[in-house]
Amino acid sequence: MKKKFVAIAATAALVMAALAGCGSTATTAESSAPAESTASEAASSEAASTEAASAEASSEAASTEAASTEASTEAASADAALAEIPADLSGTVSMSGSTSMEKFANALAESFMAAYPGVTVTAEFTGSGAGIEAVTAGSVDIGNASRNLTDEEKAAGIAENIVAIDGIAVVVDTANEVAGLTSDQLASIYKGEVTNWSEVGGADQPIVVVGREAGSGTRSAFEELLAIEDQCAYANELDSTGAVMAKVASTPGAIGYVSLDVLDDTVKTISVDDVEPTVENIKSGNYSLSRPFVMATKGEISEQTEAVQAIFTYLASDEGKALIESVGLITVD
After folding, report:
1. Cα gap 129→108, rounded to integer Å
2. C-beta of residue 95 within 8 angstroms of C-beta of residue 140
3. What is residue 18's predicted lDDT score, i.e. its pLDDT?
């Protein structure tokens, strides 16, 4: 009986141990399940994030491609429209307005008449305001303005057709320590109120004020944008952009202004109001020494004569854009 009891007790102990082991295994399995679930959820979340990022990148790439395609389509459409202008086009186109647009307007007239000998293009340079008044009165086909139209002018039915952007860079000699000026500082320098670079954060060095000759479109634009017409104290008034560049490059302490397209490493550009003179900043309107060149019409372009419409079609083509760039201006698109 004693031996039988011991055997039964041993068997019971083994059963209890087995049951304990099963419980431990079950607990471990239950414990592992949440961890595996969490890892699975994390992996799914990461995969979803990756998929979303991939989708976003694809969307951005598609948008970029669409924009590029749209630009190419517009350019192709402009050139296709140009090809549809009859070679024997005839008529007249009269322009009046901004003196700053003289170089551009004359180049446009000459180039367009060479392409379409049957059309006569004339241009007068009476000032932006006078040009808008003339087109409003109907005495000319196009009013040239080197500024945006006012709300009143638009309300009178005048269409603001921006065909180019004029950008002017301020340059100094490469040894100059000054990186930028405010518009007020720049105006003060050109009016002769600030005469030493030390007054604007530079070295103790006299400022040599260089500019273009009277009648220069670049000079007119520069002075007009800074509201310093007829107030400048020039040390040198030169008759070409190249001469301004050469003078500034070779003269310690010199400052000058030139069209954006002629810049090279012989001079140093400085920012104006903390904005660099770049095509991007000019197109965005962030750079203050820039302005639109507007060829205003009474009513929309589609309402104009065939010859006037052809002028705008020409300017939108590759040939027209090349003309715009050849006179130192920036294309709108």
Report:
1. 21
2. yes
3. 41
What is the Cα–Cα distance from 146 to 159, expressed in whole angstroms? 14
- Please list the ranges in the chain whose pLDDT falls under 50: 1-39, 42, 57, 64, 67
CA–CA distance, 55 with 62 (Å, rounded to integer): 10
What's the pLDDT at 262? Answer: 82
**The CA-based dihedral angle spanning residues 307, 163, 140, 311, taken in that order and rounded to the nearest 10 degrees:** -10
Question: Can you tell me the distance from the alpha carbon of 158 to that of 58, in angstroms, rounded to the nearest whole number?
Answer: 43
Tokens 């005495």 label which residue?
Answer: 139
Residues in a beta bridge with 170: 257, 270
Q: How many CA atoms lie within 13 A of 237 on its CB side?
A: 10
In this prediction the pTM is 0.66
Separation between Cα atoms, residue 167 and residue 281, nearest integer Å: 10
Tell me: the pLDDT tens digits for 112-123? Answer: 999 999 999 999
CA 310/CA 84 separation, integer angstroms: 10
Under 8 Å between Cβ of 279 and 167: yes
Which pLDDT tens digit goes with each residue over 274-308? 999 998 999 888 999 998 999 999 999 999 999 99
The 3-class SS string of the chain reads CHHHHHHHHHHHHHHHHHHHHHHHHHHHHHHHHHHHHHHHHHHHHHHHHHHHHHHHHHHHHHHHHHHHHHHHHHHHHHHHHHHCCCCCCCEEEEEEECCCCHHHHHHHHHHHHHHCCCEEEEEEECCHHHHHHHHHHCCCCEEEECCCCCHHHHHCCEECCEEEEEEEEEEECCCCCCCEECHHHHHHHHCCCCCEHHHHCCCCCECEEEEECCCCHHHHHHHHHHCCCCCCCCCEEECCHHHHHHHHHHCCCEEEEEEHHHCCCCCEEEEECCECCCHHHHHHCCCCCEEEEEEEEECCHHHCCHHHHHHHHHHHCHHHHHHHHHCCCECCC
